[in-house]
Amino acid sequence: MRATLLQIDVDPAEEPAERRVRVAATVRAQAGADLVVLPELWPVGAFAAERFAAEAEPVEGGPTAEAMAAAARDAGVWLHAGSVVERDPEGSLFNTSLVFGPDGELRGAYRKIHRFGFDQGEAALMAPGERVVGVRHPEAVLGLATCYDLRFPELFRLLVDDGAEILVVPAGWPARRLAHWRVLVQARAVESQAYVLACGTAGTHAGVEQAGHSMVVDPWGTILCEGGTGEEVLTVDLQPSLVASTRAEFPVLRDRLLGLPRPSGPAR
Questions:
Q1: Nearest alpha carbon to residue 97 among 157, 53, 49, 144
Q2: Which residue range is the domain that position 188 belongs to?
Q3: Is 193 among the domain residues?
C-alpha cells in the first residue's frame, strides 16, 4: 500500500482559491498512490483564526470539497483532504476532515473533537466534534484524528477498538513544539500498534512558524519517513498485514483492564 503525504506551505500571501488550484494539481500528480494525505486547515491556515468565519464552507458543495473530490477522481486515489473550516446549516463552525474515494465520492468526515487554543482561537470559535470516525479503505481501516487530538490517547484507544489499523492525523503543528510532535506521533503508533500517518503544514501563517516534519511511523514505532520544514511530498510503502502480525506477536492490547468491564468470574 503506497501512501503519500503532501506537506503544504500555507503562505498568507497566497489566496485560498489559488492554493486550492495548486494543491489539486499536486494531488493529481500522485496517480498510482493508494492513499494521499493533506494537512489540517491548509486552505486558510490553522492559526489564522481571524479568517475562519470568512473562509468557512459547507462539506457538501464547498469549494475545497469540490476541488478535492475532482482531484481524487482524476488521479484515481483515495484522498484524505486534510481539514476545512466547516459551517453547518445552523451556522456553527467545525474543523472538519474529509476523505474521498477514487470515484470522488465523500467516504468520511470527522469533526475535530479536541480544539486547541485554551479558550482562544479555534477553541473559542469552533464547536467540538462528537463522533469517533473510521473509514474503510480497501487495504485497511483508517482512523481519523486531527492535530491537537494527538495529546489525548483515549481517542486513539477508541479508534483501535473500532478497528483502526492506520491512524491518519493531519496537523498544523507549531515549530516551537516540534519535540512534542515527534514523541506523540511515535507514542500513538506504539500504544495503538498501528501505522500513524501524520501530515503537517510548512511555512509561517498568522505569525506562527509551522513544524513541518510530516511523519509515517509503523506499528513498532519505527519512523519510516520524516519531512523537513519546507513544502515536500513524502511517499512510503506500507504493509497493512504488519498491524495484525505485530498485535499477535506482542499482544499488549489484550491485557488492557482500565476502561473495560472486568470478568465477573464463576458464580458463587
A1: 144
A2: 2-251
A3: yes
CATH assignment of the domain containing 181: 3.60.110.10
Give yes or no for residue 19 having a pLDDT over 60: yes
pTM over 0.90: yes
Of 48, 80, 39, the residue nearest 172 (C-alpha): 39
Per the document, the length of the chain is 268
pLDDT in tens, 125-161: 999 999 999 999 999 999 999 999 999 999 999 999 9
Catalytic site residues? 40, 112, 147
18 found inside a domain: yes
Q: Is the confidence at residue 110, as pLDDT, over 90?
A: yes
Task: Kindly state the cell numbers that stand for 35.
Answer: 492513499
pLDDT tens-digit series, residues 221-264: 999 999 999 999 999 999 999 999 999 999 999 998 876 555 55
